[in-house]
Amino acid sequence: MAAHEPSGRRFMDLEVPEYAYMFGFLQADGHLSAQSRDRGRVTVEISARDVEILRAFQHLTPYNSTISERSRSTNFAEVHTSAVWSVCVLEARNTLNGLGLPYGRKSKDIAPPSVAYSGRDYVRGVVDADGSVGYTSQGFPFISLTTASTAIAEYFCDYAHRLTGAERTIKRNKRDDIYNILYVKENAQVLAADLYYPGCLALQRKQVKADSLTAWVRPPGMRISPGRRWTAQEDSVLLEHGNPTSAADELGRTVQSCSLRLWRLRTGRVPRPSPLV
C-alpha cells in the first residue's frame, strides 16, 4: 500500500488525530538512533500480534519504511516473535526529533509536544504503548499508565483530572523508579470512553477492552461517596453545557460528579430529562 499523509496534511502535523496518536506511541515505545554521516533510523518493535498498528504507521509515513519480524527466546516465552518498523530517511528523523523524540535513551526525558496537538489522541498513543486497559482481579474496570517521565505522568494525571475530576499525587516507586498511575471503576470507564472513541487509530486488542468497560455496573451493595441527588433541571443544564468543568461552576458541583453524570446520560445509564413543553 502506498504511504500518504491524511487529508493532505504534512507529515507529523500533530493536530491530525492519527499523527498525534502515532507520535505519542513513538515517544513511549520507539527508538531514534544516529550514526556517522547523518545515518540513523527510527524503529518501533512490538509483539507480532500488534503488527497492524505498524502497518498503519507505514501508511501514514510518506517515506520509505520497512516492517520485518524476528523471533528470539525470552524470560517469558521460549520463542517470542516481534514485528519491527523502521525508517531511515533523515528528513523524517529530523521532524520527529524536532517535535520531541530524543536520540538514544529517552524514557525520563520525553514530554508532551510544545506545538499544538490533539490531546486525547496523543494520550491514547502513550497508553497503547506503555499502559493497560481492562479489568482488575476483582472485576473492576481500570486504565493505567507506567512511565519514567515526570512530564508525561503529570500530563496524564492532569488530562484525567480535567475529564473525571479524580486527583492523583504522583510518586516514583522505589523498586524501579517509575510512576504507576491507575484509575478504576467509573473513572476508568469515563477515561477509556473518551480516549478510545469510535473509529480512532488504536491497538485493536486495547480498543476491544476499552469498549468492554462500559458493560460494568456498580453492584447495588457497593458504596459510593454520598452526594445530593440529580434533578431533571440539573441534567438539562449539564447536557446544554456538554462540558463537566463549565457545568460544575454553574451547578455548584464537583467536576468529577458532573463528568460521571454526563457520561451516564450520554450512554443511557440514566434517562435523559424530558424536553420542556
Description:
The model has no long low-confidence stretch (mean pLDDT 89). A hairpin with a 5-residue loop joins strand 1 (30-34) and strand 2 (40-47). The protein starts with 16 loop residues before the first helix and ends in an 11-residue tail after the last helix. It has 10 helices and 7 strands. The protein has 277 residues and is an alpha+beta fold. The strands form 2 sheets. A 4-stranded antiparallel beta sheet has the order 1-2-4-3. It has helices at 17-29, 51-60, 90-99, 119-130, 150-164, 185-195, 204-212, 232-241, 244-251, 255-266, and strands at residues 30-34, 40-47, 66-72, 80-87, 131-135, 141-147, 179-184.
Write the layout of secondary structure elements.
Layout: H1 17-29, E1 30-34, E2 40-47, H2 51-60, E3 66-72, E4 80-87, H3 90-99, H4 119-130, E5 131-135, E6 141-147, H5 150-164, E7 179-184, H6 185-195, H7 204-212, H8 232-241, H9 244-251, H10 255-266
Antiparallel strand pairs: 1-2, 2-4, 3-4, 5-6, 6-7
Helix pairs in contact: 1-4, 5-10, 8-9, 9-10
Distinctive features:
single chain; 277 residues; alpha+beta; 3-stranded antiparallel β-sheet; globular
Report strand order across the widest sheet: 1-2-4-3
Helix content: 25-40%
Oligomerization state: single chain
Total DSSP helices? 10
Radius of gyration: 21 Å
Average the pLDDT over all residues and give the rounded result.
Answer: 89
Query: In percent, how much strand structure appears in the residues?
Result: 15-25%
Short description:
This protein is an alpha+beta fold and 277 residues long. Helices cover 40% and strands 17% of the residues.
